[in-house]
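Many introductory courses stop at the sequence. We go one step further.
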Amino acid sequence: MITSGFAYLAFILFFAGLVVLAEKHSKGKFFEYVPAVVLIYFVCMLFSTFGLWSKTPSVNAVYKEVKNNLLPAMIFLMLVRCDLRRILKLGPKMLLGFFAASTSIAVGFVVMYVLFKSNLPADSWGAFAALCGSWMGGTGNMVAIQGALNIADADMGYTLLIDSINYSIWVMILLGMVPYGMKFNRWTKSDTSAIDQVGAELSKHHDSLRKEMTFSDIIFLLGSALAVSALCQWAAGFLPKSDFMSGTTWTVLLATVAGVLCAMTPMYGLPGSSQIANTMLYTIVGLIASRANFAELTQAPLYILAGFVILGVHALVMAIIAKIFKLDLFTCGVASLANIGGVASAPILAAAYSDALVPIGVLMAMMGYIVGTGGGLIVGKILSVL
């Protein structure tokens, strides 16, 4: 049993490091189906189930201080590479496709909750709000909403379970649809001539960015992120509070705004922000999992079924919007996966169509980081009212 706060944090970081090394050397064969962040969560939760983590004052202090300070810093670094000016260059149809995907996912959550709420716990809306943040952006948005709404760590097990199982099947479906792109495009009567041009322009810009990360990059980004974290927490103390808008919620939103604004400065071109943000994300996920327990996942099948209902509504609404606005399958598929899968999988689907289109997948996924937290909070508010 771990009773020292330092040992507790060190063990979580050590295990996260082992997972990252395994991911690096597995060449994607295993982690293509089991993302590293999911493995970290469930193994740390397994350790918690067997009582490895002791909730002593020192451990509780480390949990609270590390999680509260790293969360806004992670959000800031996650958004530093999300330049809105470049995202707008995607063009109206691709932007329409992205926001259509986000909206249809939100509709899916509302429809699902109306159908399932009588069989779900009263506070389950929080877990689905966090999942909505993930399915509109990424795991970082999910963690941000968990902190903003003070969702119980135990409930996050359901969120990660749906995010892993349902997401993996959705990725396989979208990849399986690639050969049918021409038929889908004929059905929607879409024009794809502009996509290749946009992809070529974005690819040229991506190649011009500096790739090698230096020590000064790491120090500057890390210092900036922690400074923004401290300033956002300080500023949140002066803002009005309510049952839904707590101090942590304000901190998350302020960090989001700071990241989006700094992405339009020379900070955008600094390499290393995503690597540092992922390090913080893995640490936070490990800390959250250390407060969960497998014995609490008693309704896992119901939650997984609810996840498939959300995806079904999302697919139906996307098909209708594609027909009305003449969207092609590439735009619909990548927009969907940019929301549900994020930066880890949207570029893979884009590459299945053409390597030149990979930057479009990256930019769409980056846009998900911007809207994911706010979108999840709005859906969470709707579900809490229902």
